[in-house]
Amino acid sequence: MSKSVIILGAIALLCFTATRQVRAQEEAVPPDKIPKAVMDALRAKFPAAKIDKCTKAKEGDDIIYDIEFKQEARKCEADIKENGTYVNYEKAIEAAALPKAVRDALEKRYPKATLTEIMEETEVTGKDEKLSAYEVVLVTADKKDAEVRLSPDGKILEDTGAAQPEGKK
Questions:
Q1: End-to-end CA, the chain
Q2: Tens digit of pLDDT for each residue in 48-107?
Q3: Does the global pTM surpass 0.70?
């Protein structure tokens, strides 16, 4: 029995240490400490950006700056590498701008939900930009919060909500 207690303790310590390392990798960055290359990239695409929040984290070999900002009163976010290369960016949109397939998928998964925030995500690869997903924050009919990420054709990519997986009740 003491072996299992030691093993469980070691596993718990390992999980705790791993969690602390992930949290330690992300750190807040004041706007005046954002590297020039990152700011130049942000201003090139969003010249009127008013930064609300910035964090940086190491992802693989890259340091990524996650910047939340407003561009002419529209909420936006951008992930930009330390060298000024875009990973992606998001812009808030109205529910009416969602494609029918996305609206239908949301209604099927969360009938009568209230959509509280909708972001259109664009992936950037070199000079190519491609609409990649919609991130929707909503409140379900039974007052639970959920965030759903969907492809432009309505396929659910991620779902943090309380809905049962499709086909299971």
A1: 40
A2: 999 999 999 999 999 999 999 999 999 999 999 999 999 999 999 999 999 999 999 999
A3: yes
